[in-house]
Amino acid sequence: GAVVSQHPSRVICKSGTSVKIECRSLDFQATTMFWYRQFPKKSLMLMATSNEGSKATYEQGVEKDKFLINHASLTLSTLTVTSAHPEDSSFYICSAQGLAVNEQFFGPGTRLTVL
Amino acid sequence: GENVEQHPSTLSVQEGDSAVIKCTYSDSASNYFPWYKQELGKRPQLIIDIRSNVGEKKDQRIAVTLNKTAKHFSLHITETQPEDSAVYFCAASKGASGGSYIPTFGRGTSLIVHP
Hints:
The complex is a heterodimer of chains A (about 120) and B (about 120).
Chain A: E1 4-7, E2 10-13, E3 19-25, E4 32-38, E5 44-51, E6 57-58, E7 67-73, E8 76-81, E9 90-97, E10 104-106, E11 110-114
Parallel strand pairs in A: 2-11
Antiparallel strand pairs in A: 1-3, 3-8, 4-5, 4-9, 5-6, 7-8, 9-10, 9-11
Chain B: E1 4-7, E2 10-14, E3 19-25, E4 32-38, E5 45-51, E6 56-59, E7 62-67, E8 72-77, E9 86-92, E10 104-105, E11 109-114
Parallel strand pairs in B: 2-11
Antiparallel strand pairs in B: 1-3, 3-8, 4-5, 4-9, 6-7, 7-8, 9-10, 9-11
């Protein structure tokens, strides 16, 4: 299957700082990318959907000014957690979807810990 | 919007037994139903999917059934092995604008296969 990478895999930051997470589709063009948040032993919670070149669509309850999403190209989307707080600590996973298929390919996830 | 219920939340079986995980969905327009397996600390991986024009699909020890009238679908794993131990997520989705499919995930089932 297609490959999606995510960087960094782990990040520890101080409260109040911003963290950027990158999601890349390595061998296909991703027209749509999704950002999920996952708490321990919990399901995948969709945060936002982004299409290349347009603004992301955020799910209800997700602050767009706190979780900035940019989908600048067909192979790259970024999630920036601004002014991070300890409650933002979580596992963030991206996924990418191509044109002809409705299968999602997931990235390996980023473990964010905010001290 | 779509609502996906998944049961059970935890399933413990002996090696060699069968395991069944059930999901229901609410939106009759949903037409694509993937199942994902997520091992601890890893990304979700698609293991099997079914579309609404098919009632059953099988791939070796894994099968999925779909009942559109009742709006439920199930994952069946036969001859379970310890390496089948993981969290399994069902999802339901339909085509959205721009050609993307946005799945709604169930809460997940933690499958434990005892050797």
